């Protein structure tokens, strides 16, 4: 049995969130701290999005089930790849990736995903809202980390933004009536 208390774990998580580890990366420490904070915020949202994609994937019901079910599998794989890239980037900068479910829950800016929906249309609307929310914060962060002197993190987030926009387009196309 672990002797760690909830308070000790929360205190350790707070210290991990703010402490930078030594690196020879030439971005000044103060700027790296800011980038790590931004990237951890985006990490929380991307993990949250990955989880809600699976929530929808498992619980879809309706006539287009198999098409949407398989589409969401591909979306999840793409988001998982970006989660890994974002987490690894902030660790490269000397930070700690904060990716536990508890920390994600504390740090995501996304609204809670409804657990009581099943119709494909309802899931697509909820997913579109989540994709739009993450897309907006990622786009804001592209310029923000560039301003901190980290063109590499900015470039990484640009790739994330393209994936989010592409997936949102597919979701919205499923929701729209033909011309």
UniProtKB/TrEMBL annotation:
Q: Which InterPro entries match?
A: DPS_DNA-bd, DPS_DNA-bd_CS, Ferritin-like, Ferritin-like_SF, Ferritin_DPS_dom
* PROSITE patterns (alphabetical): DPS_1 (PS00818), DPS_2 (PS00819)
The keyword Oxidoreductase appears for this protein: yes
NCBIfam families named in the record: PRK09448.1 (NF006975)
Enzyme class, broadest EC rank: oxidoreductase
Report the residue ranges that make up the Ferritin/DPS domain in this protein: 39-177
Q: Which domain of life is it from?
A: Bacteria
Keywords from UniProt, A to Z, are: Oxidoreductase
EC assignment: the record states 1.16.-.-
Is Oxidoreductase found in the keyword set? yes
Q: Please state which protein family the record places this protein in.
A: Belongs to the Dps family.
- Family matches, as Gene3D superfamilies: 1.20.1260.10
What is this protein's name? DNA protection during starvation protein
Q: Which GO terms describe its molecular function?
A: ferric iron binding; oxidoreductase activity, acting on metal ions
């Amino acid at each position: 049995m672990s002797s760690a208390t909830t308070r000790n774990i929360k205190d350790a998580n707070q210290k991990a969130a703010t402490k930078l580890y030594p690196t020879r990366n030439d971005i000044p420490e103060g700027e790296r701290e800011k980038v790590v904070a931004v990237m951890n915020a985006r990490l929380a949202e991307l993990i949250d999005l990955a989880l809600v994609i699976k929530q929808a994937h498992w619980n879809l019901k309706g006539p287009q089930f198999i098409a949407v079910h398989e589409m969401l599998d591909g979306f999840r794989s793409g988001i998982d790849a970006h989660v890994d890239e974002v987490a690894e980037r902030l660790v490269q900068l000397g930070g700690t990736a904060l990716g536990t479910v508890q920390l994600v829950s504390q740090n995501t800016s996304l609204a809670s995903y409804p657990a009581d929906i099943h119709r494909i249309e309802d899931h697509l609307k909820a997913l579109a809202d989540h994709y739009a929310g993450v897309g907006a914060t990622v786009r804001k962060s592209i310029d923000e980390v560039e301003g901190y002197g980290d063109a590499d993190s900015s470039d990484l987030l640009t790739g994330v933004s393209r994936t989010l926009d592409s997936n949102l387009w597919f979701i919205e196309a499923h929701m729209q009536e033909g011309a």
